[in-house]
Amino acid sequence: MVVAAQPTGRTRDGVPAQKLGCQTPAGIPCQRGFPGAPLRPRPPNQDQLQAAELALKLAVADHGTPKARHALARLHLLKLELDQAENQLQQVLEAEPNNAAAHADMAALYYERGATERSFPALARAAQEGEKAVALAPKLPEAWFNLALIHEQMLLMTEAQKDWERYLELDATSKWAEEARARLQKLRQRSVLQEPQPDKVAAELQAAFAARDDASLRRLLEEHFTEVTDLTAGRLLDEYLSATLEGKPAEVGQHHQLLQRLATLIRDTKGDHYFADLLRFVDSSPPARLEKIRALRAQLQQGRAHFQAGQYVQAIQLVLPT
After folding, report:
1. Which of 62, 132, 249, 307 has its CA 20 to 30 A from that of 16?
2. Which pTM was predicted?
3. 263 within 8 A of 228, measured Cβ to Cβ
4. Domain locations in the chain?
5. Where does 5-144 sit in CATH, by number?
């Protein structure tokens, strides 16, 4: 987590010895820059901030140790000077690639960037850095806290739930544990209320698209991401293939427009190009290839049905040839 240092004495690394007042899950008073953001220390008054920055820059100039650079990076992150913070953290990680706290701070940095710029690649990088942090230091509670927030922002609710559970194993008593517990409870309630209902979701998707209700399409994607993506690559694509091969132009147009809109939404909100590429491949295929695609998909569906029924030998016999 971001911790700024106060210029009242120095360690042998040249880093000011005392910290400015704040609190994170590791015991440092913090606030968020905006709802749902990873924790950042509460900014002190401007005089303190300027004094701390001067002392830390002197420490980096005098010693240039990873510890000094890390402290300066945290101060830049506190001030939302993300480029400067990233520069210092990169140098820390070049010297200490297994520095879990630095990876956790890099995760917070990319979260800030991804949330403010609405950039999925930045959020993906935040998750990558957060996962490195917890892999290197599995008992670092603030790394789990931030990773849970990142996964929530990415709408990866199953992963977020696991992160909150792990965080509470490490910290069950602080005020941050109260927030983690509340968020975990909300995710659990959501998972109970939103049992998979593919038929209902498919009907709502088609109704929203027919009404040109883009806001509802986005809401359905956010609330039922797994069901929507399964439908896009599954039933809806199968219906489009059938209408194409059976020469039903009106249905072809409707199915294609819905698939194209869903693929675009998934690409733009999640950075996932698979569905757009899949639709492009199907659109570029001649009838003979489309027939083969439909036959192979039907065979895979039969194999999946056998697998779900526990008939593993039959499932393998159907799936392997495809």
Report:
1. 132
2. 0.52
3. no
4. 5-144, 198-319
5. 1.25.40.10
